[in-house]
User: Fold this.
Amino acid sequence: MIKSFYVFLSLLVVSTNAAAVLDITITQGMEEALPIAIVPFDWQGPPENRPLDMQVTIANDLSRSGHFRTMPSDDMPQTPSQFNQINFADWRLLGMENIVIGTVRNQPNGVFDVEFRLINIYSGTQIAGFRIPAKRDQLRRTAHRISDIIFEKLTGIRGAFDTRIAYITVKKVINGSNQHTLQIADADGFNPKILLESSEPLMSPAWSPDGTKIAYVSFENKNSAIYIQDILTGNRARVANNSGINSAPAWSPDGTRLAMTLSKEGDPEIFILHLPSRNLLRITNNRAIDTEPTWSPDGSSLLFTSDRGGAPQIYQVTSTGGNARRLTFEGSYNTRARFSPDGQSISMVHRSGGQDRVAVMDIMRKEITILTNSRLDESPSFSPNGSMIIYATTRPGGSELAAVSADGRVHQRLGLQDGDVREPEWGPFPPQ
Amino acid sequence: MINRIIYILTITVMLSACGTSNVKEDADVVEGGVSSSASQSSDTGNTTSFGTNSDSRSGLSLLDDPASPLSVRILYFDYDSSDILPAYREVLEAHANYLVQNPTITISLEGHADERGSREYNLALGEKRSQSAKQRMLVFGPGSSQIRSTSYGEERPVVDGHDDESWSQNRRVEILY
Assistant:
């Protein structure tokens, strides 16, 4: 019953994909973006059977990263699909540095063979070439994997296009109440899936490090409680349901522990729940607010937000407890820290001139760089390769998701759908 | 039904791993799948039912008297503060005394915050607000179990605007009978 309901829900969501149209706007790109042409992939079958325009998904990935400027297909001098068809002189004349060509072939067993080559026009050589077999429903993911390979070959940074995001949506329904959903989608906003719907608030989605589960806060029993839900099966378990608040779940990098905020002993304090044994370890002990724990990539320490100094600031404590050390001193209000994947810097919400902005701080140099410029930005979350930060921002009539490169040079908006979209959390790399 | 049991077992195994069976009370297992409303969950555990106006307890009319401090059901707060403003001391004392006189009645104090700052910090701030109202009331002698404090953070604003006026109305503790 439960399973069939889940399947039904998935179908429902898939069928409404057309309504939840992807709308990514690059609001600011890099001046030195690399020109690249993604030539339409050759398809020999009837046009109406073409399974997916691979080149469109790849070009969208690359251009929204801000690192690339993709050539419109109408401007292309030719549409080769094989190396020996490329007229290098024509492309050189247009100043094109790299092109991607490819084919999609239908195999008898319902599998498609996707083949692509990344070619440098100036040297006239192939930089990468792969053949990837994929079923029809895997083709979009295959396109993201191709984007990842191209991105890594040309920038030296591992691509994070084949990843997912989790987020919360809130929509007003007719009788004046709100409908809250927990959803996941591909990093480009496609394939949204509803994991949970509730008339009560949902908060703080957190990916397990292996990408199979999401921890979150639900108020479905008229108080905050922490749940862990398996993404594939929909099975879920309540792991914290004490009096007071049960919130801010954060997975340890090895996935065995969940840091969280509980106020069952009075003040909001940080605890670590060891999931296999259910042992609960108290980390902070302070009359102030202590919340929003997040783990260092090596699992040795936690960052958290505390107002023990009078206003909220970011503190660091070892993951076995002990004395906390204040990390942020610039600005009257710094909250919701997250480590960059390399552990060298942290993202946070930083108040500057009365405006809440996304900022990053280099941990060694303690230098804060403000990355965004709107009024009420919140919930920054690093992509797993550390190159982008997704966050929520207000717009007239609600909130939406936006992303900024970690160096602040590339800005984009992700118009996922109507209603409020908030608390984006970028998922981990898929297993290799 | 059998499916459901299997799912529950799966979760139990998943969370207790390697045969450890030291599962504490606060770590219970709920029905799998997707829930669409709060009322579906059957094992609500510690959910208390609050006194409502549905019965005719003596004294309830006092609560409806607009001249009484008991008619004040919302306390407002300064920005990023959980201090009870002087104007509400009399209100909290009146509610506390009412609970002393009606020891079977329970209330809920719901803390809320404005939208500025992070959601989790605001959830904790709402909690501090409802707790500080509760502590102030307990001075006057009601039973601790008569007052449940909880927080919704910034998740349930009464006003949707993004300005000082809206924010001041959203920083509040609601007294719910």
About this structure: The beta strands of chain B are 74-76, 107-112, 147-153, 172-176. The mean pLDDT of chain B is 75. Helices of chain B lie at 2-16, 60-63, 89-101, 119-138, 164-170.
